[in-house]
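Below is a filled-in request sheet from our internal design queue. Each sheet records the structural input a requester submitted and the sequence that came back. We keep these sheets so that new team members can see what a complete request looks like end to end.

REQUESTER: design group, bay 2
PRIORITY: normal
MODE: inverse folding
CHAIN LENGTH: 369
BACKBONE (tokenized):
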């Protein structure tokens, strides 16, 4: 990067000449949306890359969350995490359900399975965990609880593009998983997203739902919505998919440099790679212990900002502290001590494929002071 501002992320962009070739093809076909050729090509390319049996692509990462809850007929209460982007909880609310927050495990930032059972009531019908920062949830423990109580599980996997555990895609866990392909994500289609499912019948149902519920020209099989992605963004996605492995590797290299430098800074902690996990290095959160570090998280955050190093406090404030949700019974601070601690200490450092050695040094110099 040559300009002075170092941002938390920077979009992976396809080669313009290659995009131009695809655009000419789209222009020639005059088919620009509604399940066109590029849409279908991107779906098969993604299914193969992500090692998932079925995938349906969407116009952003919020609509598959909304649609997943609809498709599974989720009602009543949905157990979720307060430590996420607000879209996770909004999707529950937009489905007329009540979000029930449970605390997180500080080892990963994900929902703590040990806290789930106490939050289950006769009205609970689903669990919506998040693989935050791409750290895999304890899917085995969550499945055991869901099976015991007959609950659906929808993973918000917005951060987990390409994440694998023991060579298996994390996206195959739960009843459904959703992805975001927003500009700020490891893989982007500018705006975009997807849902991963286990069988062809569910894919058919989801494909209907994302196209107003239409099953053919005149039949509507359900209360659908419009969340289709267009041909231009599908083409852009096909090109970005060719670049994503090298982008992930470049991010890994940045993470390695951050870890090497920060390991011995008192009061700064971070996540190490987990054994048997293929990480995607979508975020590099650090946690600032003010007492040990000698500066609060916000003091460091604003010091970075003054020097044009724009980290982000993902995820502060907690969703449970935002005005639409703060009066819910599960939103109390006492119920969510670990989530509060993490939200109060976190800064996500700049991390993307295009970060130069000088950029990394600039970030580190401020933190190491
Ligand atoms: N679930 C989870 C767990 C999520 O994290 C998200 C989205 C969703 C669901 C919903 O998926 P989508 O419906 O969004 O597909 C960003 C993103 O807008 C959002 O997609 C993302 N999570 C969230 C964590 O972050 P902001 O408001 O922080 O983004 P913004 O515009 O401040 O951008 C951050 C930085 O990225 C900028 O400082 C510079 C860089 N940037 C951004 C854009 C948009 C660029 O360099 N170019 C760009 O075009 O929300």
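RETURNED SEQUENCE:
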């Amino acid at each position: 990067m040559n300009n002075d501002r170092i941002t938390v992320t920077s979009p992976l962009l396809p080669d313009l000449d290659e995009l131009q070739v695809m655009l000419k093809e789209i222009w020639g076909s005059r088919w620009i949306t509604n399940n066109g050729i590029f849409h279908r090509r991107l779906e098969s390319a993604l299914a193969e890359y992500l090692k998932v049996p079925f995938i349906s692509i969407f116009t952003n990462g919020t609509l598959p969350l909304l649609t997943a809850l609809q498709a599974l007929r989720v009602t009543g209460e949905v157990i979720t995490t307060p430590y996420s982007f607000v879209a996770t909880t909004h999707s529950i609310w937009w489905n007329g359900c009540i979000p029930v927050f449970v605390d997180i495990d500080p080892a990963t930032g994900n929902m703590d399975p040990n806290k789930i059972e106490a939050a289950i009531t006769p009205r609970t019908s689903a669990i919506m965990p998040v693989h935050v920062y791409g750290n895999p949830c304890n899917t085995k423990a969550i499945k055991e609880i869901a099976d015991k109580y007959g609950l659906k599980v929808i993973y918000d996997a917005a951060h987990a593009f390409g994440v694998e555990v023991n060579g298996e895609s994390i996206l195959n866990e739960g009843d459904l998983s959703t992805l975001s392909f927003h500009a700020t994500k490891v893989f982007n289609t500018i705006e975009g997203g997807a849902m991963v499912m286990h069988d062809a019948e569910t894919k058919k149902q989801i494909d209907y739902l994302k196209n107003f519920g239409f099953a053919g020209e005149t039949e509507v099989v359900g209360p659908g919505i419009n969340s289709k992605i267009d041909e231009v963004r599908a083409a852009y996605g096909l090109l970005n998919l060719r670049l994503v492995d090298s982008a992930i590797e470049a991010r890994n290299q940045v993470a390695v440099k951050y870890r090497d430098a920060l390991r011995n800074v008192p009061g700064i902690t971070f996540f190490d790679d987990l054994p048997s996990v293929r990480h995607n290095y979508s975020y590099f959160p650090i946690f600032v212990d003010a007492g040990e570090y000698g500066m609060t998280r916000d003091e460091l955050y604003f010091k970075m900002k003054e020097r044009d190093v724009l980290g982000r406090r993902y995820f502060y404030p907690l969703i449970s502290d935002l005005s639409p949700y703060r009066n819910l019974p599960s939103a109390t601070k006492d119920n969510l001590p670990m989530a509060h601690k993490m939200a109060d200490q976190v800064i996500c450092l700049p991390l993307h494929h295009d970060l130069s050695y000088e950029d990394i040094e600039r970030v580190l110099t401020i933190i190491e002071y």
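SHEET NOTES:
- The two ends are 23 Å apart (CA to CA).
- The longest strand covers residues 54-58.
FILED BY: M.R.
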